[in-house]
């Protein structure tokens, strides 16, 4: 590796600052135990910056590690505050996107754990562009020690380094077991911790308008005694990503450090990451792979990313960049791997770490993924060590070895012996492909259908904020009426679905349970209840507030209660849900709605206020935005409750009638797919589409006038 320093202040790092001690905490058992030990020693302040946090999360899972303090995060912090009247705790959690609602603690701001102390300050931070996230994971204690890396203090993050298939302690607050989880956090002491304290206070100021003071003095006792430091008296680089937002200028230190460090590599680039979708990183790695004497490249990734949404998006983008790298790998120096263990069966280790080790000379641990959005769209924070002495280089190498021993199921001595025999990490990976505990090559393949359906990465994984106008045109073409040809394609699609359902009905076991008796039995618990109307309406009301698809609710109601009562319940439920969303929007206020929604939705707000009932009818028949969004925006606009109610009732009625009649006819067709019933169903579809197209044209003419 070149002797020219890689870290450059103001370019690829915010600052280089001194650390008295540094420890590397690999996997949740080590990190959360250290966090529990450190926070109880806090004297003045604790700052927590998080993407996700759960007050019920158990920090410690071994009884011998706990004295007389609670192990659940919320109760633990409350007790620490009770014991120290001088302590303040500041928690800044990302004000997350609706898509993550079901994965997170519900209404965290109102949990007793966060409200029981007036010195516990919990805030949600939405000071980022639309679609971006606050992804920094930082904890600072008294400006003396700090943690930063990939770990959230979330409900499914704890695991031991053994990553056992059957681990009774790996259970979330809801009592559910979850798959093995691998991540890394760095702990620093000294000036580096104070710098991260400055970062936390700056974030707090932007999110709340409140300026926090630095701790008046440092106690020098927050470092847990049982943790042995990996480094002493060393410089730490802090690299950030911050998107351009209001008066915040764009910061792309994370990206620049990837560029500079990958270019400087001579022998081995070793990376562990949750995602791999960055086209810039892929291009740079492809260039290095094409060099005759370039470095080996080993990437450790999860077999699959999180839930179905990530698998249908980020895994597809990963496949595209993987194809690019494999094509460039002319000299067989690339290995894309995942940690494999036979004992896990169909499960797999969730690799959540964000680690880079360049030769024996540079290591970084942080929050930044190898994704486009981590380069310029989400906020990120990585800590970097550039080795300057032989001792530092040996420790960087030891860090990589520690990770590999975990992945290969070896001791450190066994790993060194095997590496010496094989000659390189690449050859060791190849030699152990059939082992039961190893790094196995990752195929990355996805279905052709998924690859064709997913749009360009600029939409799914943007590297910069997308203008709201552009984003809206991509998904909500308000001013572009759909052509008749597209409408007929919808009809054809519906008919194809019906034919598919008919085939499934005739040639699969579906007919054994999809019948009126079974459905009636399934709905009996609700239908026979004396408070059935209130239950159904309550479900509509709650679902509307959490952005559950109202169309799906209407279809379910129609299938359960039939076209008559299905229509009645759906109309009343949608109206109540709409009014509740309207009330929330009114309570939040116009300025808040504008801040959250952006310019395109603000245009919708002005449109609603200007045209009253007609505008509400229009946006209900022509859904330019989701049901929940329309309710909130209407409440935050100048439209009155009477116009909103009448417009919602008139605008929703044709659609609900169409959906309930359609659902009833569809069920009859699936259950009795004879030519007569199919003809009736086709007629129903044509009539419904004709009515909706006619209403849209009528409304467009009215608005033009």
TrEMBL record:
Pfam families: PLDc, PLDc_2, VTT_dom. It comes from the Bacteria. Residues 130-157, 347-374 form the PLD phosphodiesterase domain. Signal peptide: none annotated. The keyword Magnesium does not apply. Keywords: Hydrolase, Lipid metabolism, Membrane, Repeat, Transmembrane, Transmembrane helix. The chain crosses the membrane at residues 488-507, 534-561, 567-585, 613-634, 646-666, 678-699. It catalyses: a 1,2-diacyl-sn-glycero-3-phosphocholine + H2O = a 1,2-diacyl-sn-glycero-3-phosphate + choline + H(+). This is Phospholipase. It comes from Methylophaga thalassica.
């Amino acid at each position: 590796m070149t002797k020219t320093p890689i870290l450059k202040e103001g370019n690829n790092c915010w600052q280089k600052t001194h650390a008295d001690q540094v420890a590397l905490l690999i996997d949740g058992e080590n990190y959360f135990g250290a966090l529990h030990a450190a926070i109880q020693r806090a004297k003045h302040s604790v700052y927590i910056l998080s993407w996700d946090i759960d007050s019920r999360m158990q920090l410690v899972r071994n009884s011998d590690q706990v004295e007389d303090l609670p192990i659940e995060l919320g109760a633990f912090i409350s007790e620490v505050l009770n014991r120290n009247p001088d302590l303040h705790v500041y928690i800044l959690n990302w004000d997350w996107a609706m898509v993550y609602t079901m994965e997170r603690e519900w209404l965290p701001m109102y949990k007793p754990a966060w409200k029981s102390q007036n010195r516990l300050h919990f805030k949600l931070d939405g000071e980022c562009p639309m679609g971006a996230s606050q992804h920094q994971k930082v904890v600072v204690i008294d400006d003396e020690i700090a943690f930063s890396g990939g770990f959230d203090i979330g409900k499914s993050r704890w695991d031991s380094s053994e990553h056992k298939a059957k681990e009774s302690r790996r259970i979330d607050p809801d009592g559910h077991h979850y798959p093995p989880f691998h991540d890394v956090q760095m702990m620093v002491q000294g000036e580096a911790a104070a710098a991260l304290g400055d970062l936390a206070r700056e974030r707090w100021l932007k999110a709340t308008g409140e300026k926090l003071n630095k701790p008046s003095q440092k106690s020098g006792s927050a470092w847990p005694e049982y943790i042995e430091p990996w480094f002493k008296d060393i410089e730490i680089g802090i690299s950030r990503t911050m998107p351009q937002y209001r008066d915040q200028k764009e910061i792309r230190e994370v990206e620049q450090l990837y560029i500079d460090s990958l270019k400087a590599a001579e022998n081995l680039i070793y990376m562990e990451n949750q995602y791999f979708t960055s086209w810039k990183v892929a291009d740079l790695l492809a260039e290095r792979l094409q060099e005759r004497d370039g470095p080996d490249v080993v990437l450790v990734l999860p077999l699959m990313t999180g839930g179905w949404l990530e698998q249908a998006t980020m895994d597809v983008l990963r496949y595209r960049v993987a194809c690019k790298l494999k094509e460039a790998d002319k000299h067989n120096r690339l290995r894309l791997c995942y940690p494999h263990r036979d004992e896990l069966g169909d499960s797999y280790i969730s690799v959540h770490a964000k680690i880079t080790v360049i030769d024996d000379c540079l290591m970084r641990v942080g929050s930044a993924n190898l994704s486009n959005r981590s380069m310029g769209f989400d906020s990120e924070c990585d800590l970097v060590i550039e080795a300057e002495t032989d001792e530092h280089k040996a420790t960087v190498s030891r860090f990589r070895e520690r990770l590999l021993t975990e992945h290969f199921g070896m001791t450190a001595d066994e790993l060194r012996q095997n590496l010496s025999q094989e000659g390189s990490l690449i050859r060791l990976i190849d030699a152990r492909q059939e082992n039961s505990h190893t790094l196995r090559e990752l195929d990355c393949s996805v279905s052709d259908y998924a690859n064709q359906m997913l749009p360009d990465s600029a939409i799914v994984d943007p590297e910069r904020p997308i203008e709201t106008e552009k984003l809206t045109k991509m998904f909500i073409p308000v001013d572009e009426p759909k052509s008749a040809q597209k409408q007929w394609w919808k009809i054809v699609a519906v008919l194809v679905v019906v034919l598919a359902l008919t085939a499934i009905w005739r040639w699969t076991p579906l007919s054994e349970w999809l019948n009126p008796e079974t459905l009636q039995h399934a709905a009996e618990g609700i239908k026979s209840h004396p408070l059935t109307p209130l239950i159904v309406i309550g479900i509509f009301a709650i679902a509307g507030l959490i952005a559950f698809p109202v169309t799906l609710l209407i279809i379910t109601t129609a299938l359960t209660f039939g076209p008559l009562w299905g229509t009645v319940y759906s109309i009343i439920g949608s109206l109540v849900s709409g009014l509740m969303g309207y009330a929330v929007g009114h309570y939040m206020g116009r300025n808040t709605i504008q801040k959250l929604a952006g310019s395109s939705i603000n245009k919708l707000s002005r449109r609603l206020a200007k045209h009253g009932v007609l505008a509400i009818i229009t946006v209900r028949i022509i859904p330019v935005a989701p049901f929940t969004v329309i309710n909130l925006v209407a409440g935050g606009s100048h439209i009155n409750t009477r116009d909103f109610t009448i417009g919602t009732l008139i605008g929703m009625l044709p659609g609900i009638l169409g959906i309930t009649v359609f659902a009833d006819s569809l069920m009859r067709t699936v259950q009795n797919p004879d030519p007569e019933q199919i003809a009736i169903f086709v007629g129903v579809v044509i009539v419904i589409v004709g009515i909706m197209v006619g209403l849209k044209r009528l409304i467009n003419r009215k608005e033009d006038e």
